[in-house]
Specification:
Elements: E1 7-11, E2 14-17, E3 28-32, H1 35-40, H2 43-52, E4 61-69, E5 76-83, E6 88-89, E7 101-110, H3 111-114, H4 118-128, H5 143-159, H6 187-196, E8 206-215, H7 218-224, E9 230-237, H8 240-260, E10 273-274, H9 278-313, E11 324-329, E12 331-340, E13 343-352, E14 354-356, E15 375-378, E16 386-390, H10 393-398, E17 402-404, H11 413-419, H12 422-431, E18 435-438, H13 441-446, H14 455-465, E19 469-481
Parallel strand pairs: 3-4, 18-19
Antiparallel strand pairs: 1-2, 2-3, 4-5, 5-13, 6-10, 7-9, 7-11, 8-9, 8-19, 12-13, 14-17, 15-16, 16-19
Bound molecules: guanosine-5'-monophosphate (5GP) and manganese (II) ion (MN) (2 copies).
Length: about 475
């Protein structure tokens, strides 16, 4: 029997996978999709949600968000929460690029202000922010310094003059998870991390100059400091080779751990360990260290972006009001308190290709935003819009305070390279008035806007179901890619 026979639509844009599909399911599977996306969704991704629902200590719902697609063990665009007492942690539920995330920087500039400087801005951003596969940062750390980066994240960066003290207020976790422990990160991961700190990476990672094109909620937009016509800069980057190595190292450990602790899993890629074991605790500490690396990385790039704008525009970054709107992690697992059956419960919430979308009142949200819920940053593609939303009470009730993280791939990189040519994509972007600078035409082809699902439908489902509400639409003027 196909999994689809066990799925029912429970309201508009919401589907549930019932436990009758697999008797081992301990939670209900939930999919936030419109009808078209539901019909087009790979069976494999639905099965992955059902598999995740079989893991020990999983609570309430195993969730597929509007950008869900097939991933390593867990789908991308997925959330699962595990009880601290009897649950597990699984590296596959976080992903290889630990704390891949998105940051949005505001300015008080308009399109007109930068129109004749745009070429220069793009050239200089491309030069000043190292990018590309295996790209190396501009600084060289010694061994003590990489440990500080891993233990203190963006705090380390700001203390070393990359950015402003006030920046930290506007980063998820203030850019530093205290439980991180660099001694749990292998030498190999540190060796990969040292030369790459302060670099964008390649492919899907990007730096974009955007314009606020539309405002859907003017009150919330004002709270976030966003205005129609405003120039903003979006960064999408993660923990580079360092996070990748941490994930690989601990997947190997977890592959033994789940057997040693007799955990019955439907797919080996869901390898995990009970939270009260040293394997789980060590992974969490190492994963947090990699998350801190990513925050330091985005912080350093923020600093160079400001310097570049200063150089080209001939004004200081403060004069241009280049503060951070927000910085979100979309590959991470964190300890959070959520209401379950009316009781506050401590959970380890895994978000893989999912953005936290905490609603009003949560103490984790910066004070300035607390009344309206946190900013949620959802990139689209280099040829389409991206969006800013805000977190909601509905998200707190239904999705452990989470929503989608992007448009979500529909074509693999290999397929995209077969179907599209970088030069053609560049030409069509230029025709739309979008400048692009990338290390190679192949990167452009892999990231062709057609390789992604329609981001408008992703954010519409989020908005209509209420798991995050629309605030603003931003559109690209220029993109740089590794
Ligand atoms: P991921 O972290 O899953 O690789 O990517 C997150 C999202 O970023 C993708 O789902 C896609 O929607 C978006 N994305 C990839 N490349 C670009 C780009 O060049 N510009 C923008 N605005 N979004 C992109
Ligand atoms: Mn990434
Ligand atoms: Mn990402």
């Amino acid at each position: 029997m196909s999994i689809k026979d066990n799925i029912t639509k429970i309201r508009d844009n919401v589907y549930e996978i019932s436990g009758s599909y697999n008797k081992k399911m301990r939670a209900t599977g939930r999919l936030y999709l419109d009808e078209e996306s539901f019909e087009n969704l790979e069976i494999g991704a639905m099965e992955q949600i059902a598999n995740v629902a079989c893991l020990p200590g999983v609570q309430k719902f195993a969730i597929g968000l509007p950008d869900i697609h097939f991933g390593y063990g867990f789908p991308i665009g997925g959330v699962a929460a595990f009880n601290e007492r009897n649950g597990v942690v699984s590296p596959g539920g976080v992903g290889f690029d630990i704390n891949c995330g998105v940051r949005l920087i505001r300015t008080n500039l308009t399109e007109e202000d930068i129109a004749d400087k745009l070429d220069e801005l793009v050239e200089k951003l491309f030069k000043n922010i190292p990018s590309g596969v295996g790209s190396k940062g501009k600084i060289r750390l010694d061994e003590d310094e990489i440990n500080d980066v891993l233990d203190y994240g963006a705090k380390w960066a700001v203390e070393n003059d990359y950015g402003w003290e006030e920046d930290l207020e506007y980063l998820e976790e203030n850019g530093c998870i205290k439980e991180a422990d660099s001694t749990k990160v292998s030498d190999k991961a540190k060796k990969r991390g040292i030369p790459q700190l302060g670099s964008l990476g390649s492919g899907n990672h990007f730096l974009e100059i955007q314009k606020v094109e539309d405002i859907y909620d003017s009150e919330v937009a004002e709270v976030f400091g966003l205005k129609e016509g405003m120039i903003v800069i979006m960064i999408h980057s993660g923990s580079r080779g360092c996070g990748h190595q941490v994930c690989s190292d601990y997947l190997r450990l977890m592959d033994k751990a789940y057997k040693n602790h007799n955990i019955d899993i439907p797919d080996r890629q869901l390898a995990c360990a009970p939270l009260d074991t040293h394997e789980a605790q060590d992974y969490l500490k190492a994963m947090y260290a990699a998350a801190n690396y990513a925050w330091a990385n985005r912080q350093m790039m923020t600093h160079w972006i400001r310097e570049t704008f200063e150089e080209v525009m001939g004004k200081s970054a403060k004069e241009m009001d280049m503060g951070i709107v927000y910085d979100v992690a979309h590959n991470i697992a964190k300890k959070e308190v959520h209401k379950l059956n009316g009781r506050d419960t401590t959970l380890i919430v895994h978000r893989k290709g999912a953005t936290r979308a905490f609603g009003p009142g949560r103490e984790e949200v910066p004070e300035k935003y607390r009344e309206v819920g946190q900013p949620v940053l959802i990139p689209g593609t280099m040829g389409t819009a991206s969006y800013v939303l805000h977190g909601t009470d509905v998200a707190m009730e239904e999705t452990f305070g989470s929503t989608a993280h992007g448009a979500g791939r529909v074509l693999s990189r290999t397929q995209a390279k077969k179907d599209y040519k970088g030069e053609d994509i560049e030409k069509s972007l230029n025709e739309k008035g979008i400048k692009i600078k990338a290390t190679s035409p192949n990167v452009i082809a892999e990231e062709a806007p057609e390789a992604y699902k329609d981001v408008d439908s992703v954010v519409r489902v989020s908005d209509e179901t209420g798991i995050a509400k629309l605030v603003a639409k931003v559109s690209p003027l220029a993109v740089t890619k590794g």
